[in-house]
Amino acid sequence: MSDTTETVLIAGGGIAGMCCALALSAKGFDVTVLERDVAPPAGDADNAFFEWQRRGASQFRHPHAFLGLMCNLLQDHYPDLLDDFYAAGARRIGFTDMLPPALLNQYTPTPEDDRLWVLMCRRATIETVLRRYLEKQTAITFHNGAIIENILTHSDGEGLSATGVQLRKDSAEQLGFREITADVIVDASGRTTKFPQWLAAHDITIEKEDHDAELLYYTRHYKFKPGIDEPETSGNKDRNAGDLGYIKFGIFPGDNGHFALILCLHKTETDLIEAVKDGDQFDRIARSIPGLAPWVDAAKAESTTHPFGMADIRAVWRHYVDDDKPLVRNFFAVGDAMVRTNPLYGRGCSTSILHAHMLADVLQAQTDPIARALLFDRRSEDELRPIYKTSLTEDRNNIRRALHYTQPGKAKDLPGWQKKFAAAFFDALAAAVTNNIHVFRGAMRSLNLLEKPGAFLTDWRTRLIVFRYMLRGRSKNAGVRTVRGPTRQEMLQLISTT
Ligand SMILES: Cc1cc2nc3c(=O)[nH]c(=O)nc-3n(C[C@H](O)[C@H](O)[C@H](O)COP(=O)(O)OP(=O)(O)OC[C@H]3O[C@@H](n4cnc5c(N)ncnc54)[C@H](O)[C@@H]3O)c2cc1C
């Protein structure tokens, strides 16, 4: 721990805000978190999920995947926190649990396999456990019901510095203070951050890269009936997550007998979008997909919520440094407030926690405000930018694929030979991932962000194996990527005959 006396104010007590608070307090900073929503209710994970008023984080009740990157950061820095997660019902899924049956008999453990694990539970469970853990840290003050409505700044010959924030009148009355200042201000207020707007009033323009993923994301939650276990997934050819081209689907096993199902549609799939808003139609669609049918079988599980959706799915990157100069000193944006990726890839919480730890390292390593801003910007570019870029490429491919169904004329296709090569390569890669432990391990590392996305493909041994699969010919590989389910016409027919 350093002997700093610096104070840090964190706007927003979601995933990034709480992880910033933990990482900074561990380095000796005196941290205050201002969160607009109320604290989690007393009680267990179900109370948190069903009762917590969480209007500030509209994605709160959508299911979340917690990837290896996030899990390892939590384990390395707060090992005792893991016991709290398990006590609340979260489950640790290790590398051997993820292995397809064909690979179990080739399996010899390696040290890196211990890093390949994920946590399965609802986001409400993660947030509640984190919040209660924060309460035990004496260097962190957490204010709920603190709605920030502006930034406080100071301007001198060198430009603008952030000095604090101002609360909305009702929050101020409740908490007994209207303004609060600190040495460092952190924007962890998430995807709807207002800081860029407030800074614009000071003639500061935060440049934003902003790409629409053109996707609508629908969720429904379920609970297994008493005595019913989760369907066996390993060995089941029909996976519980996949893409039929016109619809993407995925089961998120949760905690305490709960699970969620997402159905994702391109914004032009108007009939299906209408259908998934209705509970019966949502279930009918799910039951028509072989990988989902054993989960949403009415005899085994019942819904606990109506279907609910999320639009405005975007990839966003905000630039706080321009021409090697920070636009605002003593101000740092972390998590979704700075970089957002499509939730379909489940990367947001992991990148937020990485960002939080990056900020703590930078603030500890540098004391000069300009050096801090530049170092934070460089490390964000080095470590988060490749993840953002990959997500963007995945979004573009997904949009192209979806448009083939609804607006074939609009879908920009690759030239014929490139399309054939890409298909042959991805078929071979899928076959290699399923049948070869070395390639599977690499793919899992990438998927869990334990390396830059796709880095495993630069490994010569992986390349050689994939190349060998390509030589077998497409007919032998093609089946691995096939997802069974109704064609789009069949699905449209299904929803129209109700
Ligand atoms: C539908 C959906 C599904 C997702 N699924 C996944 C997934 O599977 N895996 C994954 O890793 N990520 C997923 N994500 C992304 C993940 O939710 C975010 O990346 C993550 O929550 C970012 O954390 P954050 O702290 O930056 O923002 P948030 O968690 O949104 O927290 C922001 C906080 O700031 C508070 N706040 C906002 N404005 C103010 C204000 N004016 N004053 C005070 N407080 C304020 C809010 O109340 C909130 O608590 C998903 C996102 C969506 C939209």
Brief account:
Helix content is 41%, strand content 20%.
Protein topology:
Elements (H helix, E strand, L loop, with lengths): L6 E5 L3 H12 L3 E6 L9 H7 L16 H10 L1 H9 L3 E3 L1 H4 L2 H4 L13 E3 L2 H13 L4 E5 L3 E9 L2 E9 L1 H7 L3 E3 L2 E4 L7 H6 L6 E6 L2 E10 L16 E3 L4 E6 L4 E9 L3 H7 L2 H9 L13 E3 L4 E3 L3 E6 L1 E2 L2 E2 L4 E3 L5 E2 L7 H18 L3 H15 L1 H22 L9 H20 L1 H11 L12 H12 L2 H8 L6 H9 L2
Parallel strand pairs: 1-2, 1-9, 2-5, 9-20
Antiparallel strand pairs: 3-4, 6-7, 7-8, 10-17, 11-14, 11-15, 11-16, 12-13, 13-14, 17-21, 18-19
Helix pairs in contact: 1-7, 1-12, 2-7, 3-4, 3-12, 12-13, 15-16, 15-17, 15-18
Provide the residue-averaged pLDDT.
94
The count of helical stretches stands at 19
Q: What profile does the largest beta sheet have? A: 6 strands, antiparallel
- What's the β-strand tally? 21
Give the distinct bound molecules: flavin-adenine dinucleotide
CATH superfamily of the largest domain: FAD/NAD(P)-binding domain
How would you classify the helix and strand content by structural class?
alpha+beta
CATH topology of the largest domain: FAD/NAD(P)-binding domain
Shape descriptor reads globular
Number of domains as seen in the coordinates:
3
CATH class descriptor of the largest domain: Alpha Beta
Q: Whole-number radius of gyration? A: 24 Å
Terminal-residue CA separation: 64 Å
Oligomeric nature of the chains: single chain
Low-confidence stretches: none
CATH architecture of the largest domain: 3-Layer(bba) Sandwich
